[in-house]
Amino acid sequence: MKFFLSIFFPVIGILSCARHSTVTSLELSHQYLANVTADSVTNLLLRPYKLKHDSEMTEVIVYSEEALLKGQPEGNLGNFVSDCLLERAASEFREKNITIDAVLLNNGGLRVSLPKGEITKGKLFELMPFDNEMMIVEISGKKFYEMLCFIAAKGGMPVAGFRMEINTKKKPVNVTVNGNVLDTNATYHVVSSDYLINGGDNITFFSDGKKYATSLFIRDILISYCRKLTASGKTLDVKTDGRISFSK
Amino acid sequence: MDEFHFQNRRSFLRHMLGAGVSLYAFSSLHSETLAVKGISKLVVLYTNDQHSRIEPFPINDPKYPDQGGFARRATVINKIRATEPNVLLLDAGDIFQGTPYFNLYHGEVEYKLMSMMGYDCTTIGNHDFDLGMENIVTQMPHAKFDFVSANYAFQDTPLENRIKPYKIFYRGGLKIGVFGLGIELKGLVGEKQYGNTRYFNPVMVANDVARTLKREEKCDFVICLSHLGYKYEDRKVSDVILSEQTRNIDLIIGAHTHTFLEKPLVKANLEQKEIHVTQVGWAGIWLGRVDILFSHNNKKNSLETSYYKIFKNQV
């Protein structure tokens, strides 16, 4: 069946201020091409790569009750990844008597949405394609507050372990960390990626903190979390819970 | 076999072509027809931020179900090439990273398939550094296209002497200058990844290179492949700022912000000449097209933009 739809916008603009340049008329069209067949020569070249790719990546590792999407001030996708890291970091550091207080990640690092239903190993590679490691950093309460200001200025980031509101001046208010008010004289242990802890996204509040490497890829942590969930007969069911909200 | 076709559309070229052909968009006009009237036509096709999206998004994807895909794009490009002799196929960077194809093959598949599609040129995006510059060098033999970047200096890096600031292409008697610009790497890319690469002010460099291309090399058309990003809330340099603060650039093909521009931005540059800014989101969901007509003295006369949105089944 032939299927073709073209939305056509007429002339968009002629620069009135152009004195010496030639006049340009701009015609614009949006063309929805459906039933585009795959080029067979391209597919032939791709085939050997695809075979190995499919054998390793199409394994279904978990079933999700809902689509997981990025969101601001909060999204269930960010909550899923942050909660996974909080749980894993807490168990990794328990024997060192280090309490993990919070997780901070960046929306830019979550590269795709996850579908409702079957989620493949490949999909988690797409979500977290970077070989980023989980890292822990020990920071002062003052730096923690700087972090909250950074989150508020961005309009929300993927987090776990604390709750906050963002007021109309884009400042953090009504903050609770693990149920307690923020203590600027205390020290806090924050989980993040090596990318952010080493100054990615122009983050400065982690720079002079004591750092703990884990040698665990964030992607691998997510994959093993999903596998365990499935092995125990459970599905993924992540919701937003108001951990970051805008003040009313 | 299911086929798609490009539909003829009305045109606004009466001032150039006369009433006889004004009912058709010039994307549908044959080059021979135009040549008789002393007009050359260039078709620029482009992508940005392909992010290793070799296969279409799966049918259950919440945002882009069954959209994109390299092999489908190859079909669309072949179809255009069948009727257009003067095609330039460009990319504005971040070819790498985003699907397991990159984790498994480190960019080999992307470069090979792009070469097969006949890509002419790309620039270096921040994610192209993800496995280090050595990896770009390793994958380069698979790429039958050029790499341009004018504001990164690669002295004392593995990329030294492998990337030119600009490249001049000849199509249908036209001379087209293409140069590349990259985003500031510090704070965005790990220092381990970008090593000794030095970043220079894109606006300054762009003015310098574009002047060379337009005034000294006498290019008929100058294209900037920019991985700076479309626009920011602060004064961070972007394609919008670049368009306002430069001379001698005709078209900016943007990237990085994954912006699906519903229409190209048309601005007046520093000397009040027209400059177009475009960007087609990411992942090869759209293929961008700009048709440019040049009258007999090779003066740019008209631009037409199309965005092809590539689906399999549903619209």
What tags apply to this protein structure?
heterodimer; A: 248 residues; alpha+beta; 5'-nucleotidase,  domain 2; 2 domains; 4-stranded mixed sheet; B: 315 residues; 6-stranded mixed sheet; 9 helices; 23% helix; globular
Give an account of the 3D structure:
The complex is a heterodimer of chains A (248) and B (315). Chain A is of the alpha+beta class and 248 residues long. Helix content of chain A is 30%, strand content 27%. Chain A is globular and about 65 Å long. Residues 1-25 of chain A have low confidence and may be disordered. Chain B has a 6-stranded mixed beta sheet. Chain B has a 6-stranded mixed beta sheet with strand order 6-7-9-10-12-11. A two-stranded antiparallel sheet of chain B has the order 5-8. In chain B, helix 3 (70-83) runs parallel beside helix 5. The longest helix of chain B has 15 residues, at 202-216. Strand 2 (26-33) of chain A pairs parallel with strand 14 (300-310) of chain B.
Beta-strand fraction estimate of chain A: 25-35%
Number of domains of chain A: 2
The CATH topology of the largest domain in chain A corresponds to 5'-nucleotidase,  domain 2
Number of helices of chain A: 6
Largest sheet of chain A, if any? 5 strands, mixed
Average predicted local confidence, pLDDT of chain A: 90
- Architecture of the largest domain in chain A, according to CATH? Alpha-Beta Complex
As a percent range, the share of helical residues of chain B equals: 10-25%
